[in-house]
Amino acid sequence: MSELQKTLQFSEAALQQAELIFQRYPADRRDSAVMPLLHLAQREFGGWLSQEALDYVAAFVGMPPIRVYEVATFYTMYNLKPVGKYHVQVCTNISCWLCASDDIVKALQEKLRLPLGGSSSDGRFTLTEVECLGACVNAPMMQINDDYYENLTPAQVSEIIDRLP
Amino acid sequence: MSGTAMTKIVYKNIHLENSHTLAVYKANGGYQALEKALTLTGDDIIDEVKQSGIRGRGGAGFPAGLKWSFIPKDDRAKYLVCNADEGEPGTCKDRDILRYDPHLLIEGMIIAGYAVKAERGYIYIRGEFYREAERVQAAIDEAYAAGYLGDRVMGREVRFQLAIHRGGGAYVCGEETGLIESLEGKKGQPRLKPPFPANIGLYGGPTVINNVETLSSVPAIISNGGAWYGKLGVPKSSGTKLFSVSGHVNKPGNYEVELGLPMRVLLEEYAGGVRGGWDNLKGVIPGGSSTPVLTKSVCETVTMDYDALSRAGSMLGSGAVIVLDRSVCIVRAIARLSRFYRHESCGQCSPCREGTGWLAQVMERIEQGKGVQGDMDLLLSISENIQGKTICALGDAAAMPVVGAIKAFPEEFQYHVDHGRCMVA
Hints:
The complex is a heterodimer of chains A (165) and B (425). With 165 residues, chain A is α+β, with helices and mostly antiparallel strands.
């Protein structure tokens, strides 16, 4: 991973996306692009943002690196440590908790053999407890990478994990 | 007011097949309100919205027409921002607009932008709503291609550019000035007000920020008139409202009803009733995690509108109705919320940064049976030292559920402290 991160460079497709991102904002407001570019960089560079990745984005936007660090550390979705190929995020906030999210957490911990906050040694899974993800009427729920899984039962959790490619 | 045959405004299309596409939206009258709006002046539109009486659906309940009228008529560039950072625990109503009827929001935004002379709009969508953002982006692309967005809106001398900005997982960005900071590429720490965004907002320009649901109500207000909308609901709480009913009901879901509906009707006729029956109800958090919990006896008669919930000691908030049955330990429920607010405090104001930490710690120790006599007074004192002493409302939002729960269920807190365990679960 660290070898990859040393020679960071957006792919051709990412460069095109970055161009579209800048177009969303007034020409003299390039800083506004930092959040979407961090999202893009995280996608491009293996699911997390190393210091090299942050510096790359800073140079790309033309912002002082410290300003990019401030942003990256403020928002929870920017992963500042490596995460597994599948980032399993389980909500335990009130609506999910009322609908037995404790059982979902337990099922995930047993299935993945991970504590909350843990990553598997093969790099496949990271399990994270998260705050409300805004699917409260379909509680309990979890998010794996970009997708929501709702109205969960412990049995379904196991099936969903098994079906991941 | 009966539970059936209520007017649907923002959810009128969401059950249609392919409701998210331009073709289905247009086939059901979509973009006709925009066509009409473009024959009116901006001030006419603002007057209609004022007349409708619609109040902000994000939580604060500020009259939307009044907010628009604050935009100065100078020649600075103006901005329209849609707050789709739906993050108040319990709330998931806007998500269904974003994924099932994005054109309704887009049409509402173009009309609002035209009314306040904003040529640029942003939809700030919480980052976790990745699939929803994809849907909205596809709809924006369709609207550009069809000439509803761009340099000549519907062939007229009207310009409106619209783009999505995805958040990064920070509840505080739902606060409008935190959101603006985030849009400008910074940490989402709220700004001191005044100046208000209507005067100095995004990029220093006059800015209107409205919730998804508010903006999605605009096309119907323009099509049918503000007076028509004003007759829906009850005085001072006009129109329809989306409620996300979650927790211990048999049919959790998002429901659109006219404001003023009795809570009991909402829970029993829409949400399938309380799990185990009405008598199994313990209490309801009526407007999202920051609103004080109401006891069953209040829930018997309270109606779902701004004034009635305020009189009952709580708030309509974002319309997230969280239902707790008698199996719930209120201390544990509120302790979970306190943990949330500690996590989400942006750290800018000491009373909130420190106070949310204290609330979470004391709630946690009471929950774990390690509370000491005086802890309830301590919680109330911490709350008092947060409320009204911070830049934004997050501190108040952290304090209100704690204060509300101590008032509503003092005996449960006391039992935890006296016996080191819960009297319920």
